Amino acid sequence: MAHTDNKLTDDKCDKSFFKQVRERASKTTVSRWIRFGLVSALFIAWVAWLGSWWVLIFLPLLFDIYITGFIPFTWWKNAKNPVVRTVMSWVDAIVYALILVYFVFSFVGQNYAIPSSSLEKTLLVGDYLWVNKMAYGPRVPMTPVHFPLVQNRMPIIDTKSYLDNPQWKYRRLKGYRDIERGDIVVFNFPQGDTVATRYMESPQTYYDLVKQFGAQSIRNNPDRFGEVIHVPVDRRQNYVKRCVGLPGETIAIQNDTVLIDGKPISQPENVQFNYFYQLRGGGMTDKEWDELGIAPDDRYAMQVDAVSAVANGFYVEPDGRVPAVYVSPLTHSMADKLKARPDLVKIAKASPYPAKMYPEGDDNGWTVADFGPLWIPKKGASIPLNERTWPYYERVIRNYEGHHDAYLKNGTVYVDGKPAEKYTFDMDYYFMMGDNRDNSLDSRFWGFVPEDHIVGTPWRVLVSFDKDRSWLNGHIRWNRIFKKANPDSIK
């Protein structure tokens, strides 16, 4: 009998609840029904794009927000204290804004600032770009709980801007095209998986620091290096380079010319290389530097003695003084303008500087100007595993595809602790280079970019600031506002 009474009580409660829903819905204005319809349609379309239909469980929450109002989200509007109403109105607006920014930055696009000259003259230091994440398909957030306005560190308080957990597996929604050769691409820095927090903005990676100081020294000196942390893929530093090599291709560089599968490809119009040059007399004025397009940071004057100058074909004054010999990155058109000057003594392309190229630990003799050949991994493709191939794909297998128990021992490669004669890749990879070829830390130094690191492609320059000029003298580059971010490409 008691059981029957409980059932009757539950039925009455259910009827009472649904009666309240109907009453509240009947009192809802037409405008709120229209707003609910539009928001619901956008939400359902987003869920369909996301491909995770379980997210529709949040649809009743939208119904309550717009129609029934059982959850008192706006309780503060009826508060008697005006201070409470004022403060909570700001809190409400900020929360809604942050939620909107989170979804826009995660699934549509976001702004990005150019911090270095690796892509000059295509993109300039001080350019603020809008990066399109829909072109290649946005990544579903891998670190979903994060503050949407910063990448990895909160300003001022210098703490993580994200929670390490939960972590979601990599998944990318459908875009409207694939990455093409010549695209300028924003991606998370592959070697940014482990960082010393005080060097997060430095061109020196954690691995560079380890080679210089040793891992133990770095961990024992947090005052100097900061905390050593692992950074999730989507919270790593953002880099921007040009894609020159696609999955499954073999890339090589011969005398600065990029070859794909043995065939040369055209260079971007604004590609730059370092040149030595000398002018008679007093050299160039600041106005001439500016007209040529050489930034103040690129006006390097070398100290050359008379003997070296003569040996290298430079001019020496009768009194033994050597006019300044400069080295700067120049495009072909900039070099042609210098060659047309009557006071030019000599201009010559600078030889590649000695540097350790990819892969680490392999003395292959490659340089920035002569590199490869190197095969770029492709999803589903396999390679033989042996002493020759292991150095080139070790980081891919261990760090990017998660087989941490992989190693070479006595001439045999082990993957997940077991001997392996071949390996099949789980992801596509890309080879990225800067247009400022002799001054770009790119795939020639740290290897491939995995597909799960891809962020998007720059669409437009929103605004651009020249750090070397004042507000009244060209600090804002007006001619770059809404300029295409990738005006020239390569094929």
Structural commentary:
The protein has 491 residues and is of the alpha+beta class. 28% of the residues lie in helices and 21% in strands. Strands 1-2-22-3-6-20-21 form a seven-stranded antiparallel sheet. A four-stranded antiparallel sheet has the order 9-8-7-14, with no helix packed on it. It has a four-stranded antiparallel sheet with strand order 11-12-10-13. β7 and β8 form a beta hairpin. α2 packs antiparallel against α3. Keywords: Hydrolase.
Strand tally is: 22
Beta-strand percent range: 15-25%
- Categorize the overall geometry: globular
Strand order of the largest sheet: 1-2-22-3-6-20-21
Distance between the termini: 82 Å
Give the overall average pLDDT: 89
Oligomer: single chain
Structural class: alpha+beta
Rg on CA atoms, Å: 29 Å
Give the helix level as a range of percent.
25-40%
**Largest sheet at a glance?**
7 strands, antiparallel
Q: What ranges have pLDDT less than 50 throughout 5 or more consecutive residues?
A: none
Contiguous helical run count = 12
Protein name: Signal peptidase I
Keywords: Hydrolase
Organism: Muribaculum caecicola
EC number: 3.4.21.89
